[in-house]
Design a protein that fits this description.
Rossmann fold, five-stranded parallel beta sheet, 9 helices, Arc Repressor Mutant, subunit A, four-stranded antiparallel beta sheet, elongated, alpha/beta, 2 domains, 258 residues
Length: 258
């Protein structure tokens, strides 16, 4: 157990860079790349969940200590919290209670090994949006997470984003340009999802960095330039272009809208 609770300086240390989430910024858009806080002290379970969500393009910050997680989520905006109940430092119920008392509305999916109905009712009464009893199927975890994220973003019924003739199927992580399938790596898909979800909106390098990389990734803004370059090459010939706005950032512009 850590000797002290993490402060904002600790959060900065985790990222290896000045975290833009501690600076005022625009509220996240509805369909941007998902950032998840996973609070789970069982190593194999936490590792499997992290790997599962990272593989489909999301950023996962994984914390094993309840008290540390409570401090982090108080200072960092997340799209979803996956919260185990039995934790060192502070249990999941206490974390959930603190979140709701502070009027933090992030969706919370509770994981519990307790199958008793009273525990499940307690989680819901404290403000959990959903729960899963261990052991669970990872496909069900993903499905429940998608439902909570859709609900939080206003209930968008579709998993498909279209910009020009670029089509991104978020469920299957599949991208096509016209009839041509484009092979993108995980972070390239995530970057395209951010840009295509709000065509014409300018995203700064710092904002993209914050959404593409988690605490443990010591990446800088040069990484964004690298991924933008790779994505541009793979989307060549599309009726939508990634435009650089010098000093501001990047935007995806559809030729159909010109």
């Amino acid at each position: 157990m850590p000797k002290h609770l993490p402060t904002r300086s600790d959060v900065t240390w985790r990222a290896g860079r000045a975290p833009s989430h501690l600076v005022h910024r625009e509220a996240p858009c509805d369909h941007r790349k998902v950032r998840i806080l996973l609070v789970e002290d069982t190593h194999d379970v936490g590792e499997a969940i992290s790997r599962r969500f990272q593989r489909i393009g999301h950023t996962v910050d994984w914390e094993t200590d309840g008290a540390a997680a409570s401090e982090i989520v108080a200072h960092t905006p997340y799209d979803l919290v996956i919260l185990d109940v039995m934790l060192p430092g502070m249990d999941g119920f206490a974390i959930l209670k603190g979140l709701r008392q502070a009027r933090v509305g992030v969706p919370v999916l509770v994981l519990t090994a307790r199958s008793e109905i009273d525990d499940r009712v307690s989680a819901l009464d404290l403000g959990a949006d959903d729960y899963l009893v261990k052991p669970f199927d990872f496909r069900e975890l993903e499905a429940r997470a998608r439902v909570l994220l859709r609900r939080a973003s206003g209930g968008d019924p579709t998993n498909v984003i279209v910009c020009g003739d670029i089509r991104l199927d978020r469920a299957n992580r599949n991208v096509t340009v016209g009839k041509r399938e484009v092979q993108l790596k995980r972070r390239e898909i995530a970057l395209l999802e951010i840009l295509a979800s709000r065509p014409g909106r300018i995203f700064s390098k710092e904002e993209l960095l914050d959404q593409l990389f988690g605490f443990e990734d010591a990446a800088g803004v040069n990484a964004i330039e690298l991924y933008i370059g790779r994505l541009r090459k793979k989307l060549e010939g599309a009726r939508a272009r990634i435009v650089t706005q010098r000093g501001s950032g990047y935007q995806l512009v559809s030729d159909d809208a010109v």
